[in-house]
């Protein structure tokens, strides 16, 4: 098998007992093609209806300097939504663990190696930033906009249904969010908890229906990135907003968190946010 050839999930490290490496090995990264999950949403490769990124934070990053002294950092990675592959999270963690007992001459060498390996796996350029653990850029903040979570709604359906998405005639520009997002890993079934933000201009979304729709992902099995794309495509089809941004901030699991966002072309990307649960 070639170094970064996408393969089936049956051959991935996900859901398997794994020995954690002590030396650097780029072959541990496991890419997964996005196309198979996008096809059911009517999304064609090369004709994406959105722009966006997958932003990852890694909180368990360490390596040795030239004298063997350990250094630690928090890493921020950004993969473009147009990359043909996402990278399976457990393989990413195993790959990063390979840095723990590997010596590097400089911080710049670590960043260059990460950018090279991750770009080869993703099939597109990946940006890497390393922060000290006390860096103010990592401070937790709150989502902007209006929270939907206090709405008193009755729920008996925990699968996503676009039928709940309804709009009125009034044209508005607003930002809404919920901390009640939950989906499940498509292989292990482990829960993935998160918060989701929706910023749009268009016919006003009926709030109770929107919250029911978002809670509908509670038993849905899919990767974080595809859940966000599912929400984006459903909102575009049902509400037809002029502008739309969908951003999810998933809770850290295994030392990694992921925050995908998708938006209509021309929409400004959100500032980097970290929530208390991350």
Q: Quick summary of this structure?
A:
The protein has 278 residues and is of the alpha+beta class.
Could you explain how this protein is built, in words?
- With 278 residues, the chain is of the alpha+beta class.
- It has 2 domains: 9-138, GTP cyclohydrolase I, C-terminal domain/NADPH-dependent 7-cyano-7-deazaguanine reductase, N-terminal domain (GTP Cyclohydrolase I, domain 2, 2-Layer Sandwich), CATH 3.30.1130.10; 146-263, 2-Layer Sandwich (GTP Cyclohydrolase I, domain 2).
- 19% of the residues lie in helices and 31% in strands.
- It is built from 5 helices and 10 strands, in the order E-H-E-E-E-H-H-E-E-E-E-H-H-E-E.
- It is found in: Cytoplasm.
- Homodimer.
Count of domain modules = 2
Which outline best applies?
Answer: elongated
Oligomer: single chain
Largest sheet: 8 strands, mixed
SSE string: EHEEEHHEEEEHHEE
CATH superfamily of the largest domain: GTP cyclohydrolase I, C-terminal domain/NADPH-dependent 7-cyano-7-deazaguanine reductase, N-terminal domain
Estimate percent helicity: 10-25%
